[in-house]
Batch of 4 targets.
Target 1
Amino acid sequence: QETASKELTAQNEYPSIAFVDNDSLSINYKFRIDKSKILEKASADVQVLENKIAKAQEDYYEIMNKSQTGGFTSDAEIAAAEKKVMKLQEDVPYLQSQMESRIKRLTKLEIEINDSLYSRLYRYIDSYTADKPIDVIMLYTKGMTGLYNNGSLDVTAEIVTGLNAAYESEKTAE
């Protein structure tokens, strides 16, 4: 590594650097767009369960409050409330278990998609730079990883175009 660095310095006074704009990559890379839809669906499934649990807990507290304040007017009302409480006590742990399971699946899916995204990006950039005098491609995020760039080193459009072409050919092959 040190030898390569010395050779690079001997050949060029400075390394050749380019960047990919993180926001543009996120917005325009079709693989990421497609996988984001899958993640959004999985996240919505978790949200549905969270809402069901919240509603069940709200119903439970409402019944308990009504019971403590003498809000029931008949034995039939009390019996129905008791039946509902028993059902809620059965349903909530099941819903919580389902939600925990879906959260684990969502987390695993996020990791798999991110790993695949970075693997695809790295493979493509490796081939992209094979015939170009680029030593480093940085991921630029406005205001976070750079304060300024003049755009002359931006290779985002070329990278996204190539990534999308590779992804489209993969989808066609499936």
Target 2
Amino acid sequence: FVVLRVFRGHSLLHIMLIFMHADVAIIGGGIVGLATAYRFTERFPGRRVVVLEKEADVAVHQTGHNSGVLHSGIYYKPGSLKAQYCREGNAALQEFCQEHGIAYDICGKVIVATNESELPRLEELHRRGIANGVAGLEVIGPERLRELEPHCVGIKALWSPRTGIIDYSLVASA
């Protein structure tokens, strides 16, 4: 697919000519627009796709400024499409990164309860994670928390070893 950066200098005729040779136009060169274009060209080989982006590069806005977390599926309601897509998307993104030589780190994360009032929410996240099939999820105490994150203090935590980090700008540029 082609990413077209629409600058003020492009004439309307120039843009229309590009559209006339495209089967599909996707507006926005963030991770969602680019992933849509990528999957479309996989599903429909030979179709011409143009991605319109107003900035000089892709992933300039939200995609390039998010936390970079590769989520494991803890937060979503069990059985929901969000939970399903989170797991499937995690696996697909890791596969894409391996195929394209993009670094990512499955470093895990801890979700920490700092006081008694946060324990019910932590327990609910644990329940959801287990129901969503999150591998390796474990409730840990203060000692194990200090081993994993020496500067973190809490009364209980949820350790998610399959959560990772990634630079989504690199993914978008691949």
Target 3
Amino acid sequence: SSSSLFSDSRCNSNLCLSVIYSPSQKVYNMTMSTDGGGAPNGWYAVGTGNKMKGSNMMIGWVDTTGNVVMSQRTASGHDDPVTTITAAAATMHTKQSFSNSSGTVWAWSFPLSSSDPTPGSSTSFIWALNKNNNPASSTSAHLKQHSDYGTFSLDLTKPYTPFTSSSSSSSASG
């Protein structure tokens, strides 16, 4: 039931991050979104924790055909993230991910391991982007360094309440 789920979201002028935490499944269901899309508009990333080193990161971009690309990466420090990850593999939610002129959404799940801290009222996530770097469509494409970055603090003790809107055309979940 949704009563055992917790969620929070944060936005800045560049992107939004929404996280639904399931303690029973030990998983983060995550959505990153930005305005605009349907064509390459740079790369956007969020990750667990408050620094790049050891962060479980998801980097998203739109390729030249307008398709959404997601690449799970990690970094050993403040350096180029690699696709060789030690974290459990993410599940990409391709049906919930899209890009068009009104916006771009990347959706995925990160399983939590026993070594991950228990999410709480101040759970840290990092974000970064480079709006002027459009990687190739390969998930292992090279990225240029971020032009902007920071952290979000989410309260993952807040009960999840499903969002309902008259403009929503789908009631699918997953």
Target 4
Amino acid sequence: LSNDTITRSFMVSFCSGSYTIALTGGDYHSFGEAIDTLNVVGIEGPVTFNVSPGTYTEQVVLNNIPGSSATNNISFIGTGDNVLLTAAPSQNENYVMLLDSTSNVTLSRFRIEARPPSGNFANALVLQKGGNIALDSMTVRVRGSINNANASAVVLLGNISNLSLTNSTIDSGY
């Protein structure tokens, strides 16, 4: 036999329900772990990530999630200002959180802050296409001593439909 390889393909769907993101304990130890799972396997129903207090230093990209809809939405819910998602963006990856063609997502009760080490490329939240995105009781800002048009708390690219901002602070910080 010249070919003795067996190939098996299968699709695993992400369960619906509530999960915890926590630096210690919890179902996921970072936003990145939870988002990687969503990006790979999708969802079957509404999914809520309850985010425990802490500083999560990472850059994350949430793509178009298979299975998401107005009914099957995705929520990241923190406990207030004691939950921080932060990073030091570079010129090529100039965001802390990127929602790329993402729809049906709620971000609630945490902070997203870009903290550039130097230079002027620092965007906290980038929304690239998508829709039905809600920011509720969020603080989104750029920190540091930068003074350049290339630094923004929120950047909208492409067609964004149904963007809702409620009780939120958007601050470019310079």
